[in-house]
Write a structure and sequence with these properties.
Layout (H helix, E strand, L loop, with lengths): L3 E3 L6 H10 L9 H7 L2 E6 L5 E10 L2 E5 L10 E2 L5 H14 L2 E5 L14 E11 L4 H5 L4 H12 L3 E3 L4 H9 L4 E2 L5 H16 L3 E7 L5 E10 L2 E9 L5 H16 L5 E4 L6 H8 L4 E11 L3 H6 L1
Parallel strand pairs: 4-6, 12-13
Antiparallel strand pairs: 1-2, 2-3, 3-4, 3-5, 6-14, 7-13, 7-14, 8-10, 9-12, 10-11, 11-12
Helix pairs in contact: 2-7, 5-8
Length: 307
C-alpha cells in the first residue's frame, strides 16, 4: 500500500466524498464539506485509489502542524471498505508519528486498539447511542422518570415542536445573551457553524427542530445530522427560561417518535457537556459507549509551555 500525505489543495473532494459515502465505516464528520467548515485546515493520509483515508484536522502553531480535533468533529480515524485490522491502523499511526509532533484525535468505534502504539497515549471519551429500530412504545418504556416528567410538563405548557428551522433563526437564537448553547462558539466558529448547517440543510444531510411556547417564542432547538444509517446530535441550544428544559426533552422525544422503527442509530455526541446534561441522553435509554482518543506530544519544551 502506497500511503501519501496530501495537503488540502491536493485532495480531490469529489473522489474523497464518493469514497466516504461508500465506506461501511464512513460518517458525516469525514466528508470534505464538513471538514472544510470545521477545521482551520486539514490534510489526509490517502492510498493511491482513495480506498483508505485518514483525515487530519490541522492547526498551525509556531511553525508546526499539529493534529488537533475541532470541537464539532466528534471523531475521525481510518475510513475504508477494506478489513480494518489493527495492523492497518497502526501502519497509518506510525506514518502520522513521523510527520507530526503533536496529535490529539478521537477514533471511531471501527478503529479498535487495546493499547496505544508508542509514542501515543490512549484515553477514552464517552458518548451515548440509542437504537431506533424498536417501535416507539418499546423505546419510550426505557425512558427515565425525569424524562417522562419533563415531556409531560412540556405538553402541559403547550410547547409545540416544528422542524424546518432556518440557519438565520438558529443563529439569532444562539446570539441572544440569555441563550445556553451546548458548546460555546466564538465569532469565527459561529460563521463556520452557519455555513455548516446551511450546507447540511441544503443537501438534505440535516434538519433543525425548534420548540415554541404558547407565545410563539423559540425556547430550545436541536441540530440533527444524518448519514450512514446514523443520526448525530452535534449541537443544541436552550433559552434561560425554566420551560426550556422540558422543551428540549420534548424535541428529542418528538424525533425518536418520528424515526422509530427505522434502521437508524441516534448518536448523542457532545463530550464538552457537564454531567447533568449528559444524563439527559441516558434519560432516553441511550447506552454509553467509549471511543479511543490518541494523544502524543513531542513538541519542544518551550512550545509546550507556550501552548
Amino acid at each position: 500500500m502506497n500511503i501519501r500525505l496530501l495537503s488540502h489543495k491536493d485532495i480531490d473532494p469529489v473522489k474523497w466524498d464518493d469514497s466516504i459515502s461508500r465506506f461501511y465505516n464512513g460518517c458525516v464528520y469525514a466528508y470534505s464539506w464538513y471538514l472544510d467548515r470545521t477545521c482551520n485546515t486539514w490534510m489526509a493520509l490517502v492510498d493511491d485509489d482513495y480506498e483508505t483515508l485518514l483525515p487530519l484536522p490541522v492547526t498551525e502553531f509556531k511553525g508546526e502542524n499539529l493534529i488537533l480535533q475541532p470541537g464539532l468533529v466528534r471523531y475521525l480515524g481510518l475510513f475504508t471498505n477494506k478489513l480494518l485490522t489493527k495492523e492497518l491502523l497502526i501502519t497509518h499511526l506510525r506514518f502520522l508519528n513521523e510527520n507530526f509532533p503533536f496529535v490529539s484525535i478521537t477514533l471511531s468505534k471501527y478503529n479498535r486498539l487495546s493499547s496505544a502504539p508508542e509514542p501515543y497515549v490512549l484515553s477514552k471519551t464517552q458518548f451515548h447511542c440509542l437504537d431506533l429500530m424498536p417501535n416507539y412504545t418499546k423505546i419510550s418504556s426505557r425512558y427515565s422518570r425525569k424524562a417522562l416528567e419533563n415531556i409531560q410538563s412540556a405538553h402541559n405548557q403547550k410547547i409545540i415542536i416544528l422542524g424546518g428551522l432556518q440557519p438565520r433563526e438558529l443563529m439569532a437564537f444562539i446570539a441572544q445573551k440569555t441563550s445556553r448553547p451546548s458548546e460555546k462558539l466564538d465569532e469565527k466558529s459561529q460563521r463556520r457553524f452557519r455555513s455548516l448547517i446551511s450546507h447540511a440543510l441544503f443537501h438534505n444531510f440535516g434538519e433543525i427542530y425548534g420548540a415554541y411556547d404558547i407565545y410563539n417564542n423559540l425556547c430550545a432547538a436541536v441540530f440533527f445530522l444524518g448519514s450512514h444509517q446514523k443520526v448525530y446530535v452535534p449541537f443544541f441550544v436552550q433559552s434561560a427560561e425554566l420551560l426550556s428544559e422540558p422543551a428540549l426533552y420534548l424535541i428529542f422525544d418528538h424525533f425518536i417518535k418520528k424515526n422509530s422503527e427505522k434502521n437508524v442509530v441516534l448518536n448523542f455526541e457532545i463530550p464538552t457537556l457537564p454531567k447533568n446534561k449528559t444524563n439527559l441522553f441516558a434519560d432516553f435509554g441511550a447506552k454509553e459507549t467509549a471511543l479511543i482518543t490518541l494523544n502524543k506530544n513531542k513538541l519542544t519544551f518551550w512550545k509546550r509551555w507556550m501552548k
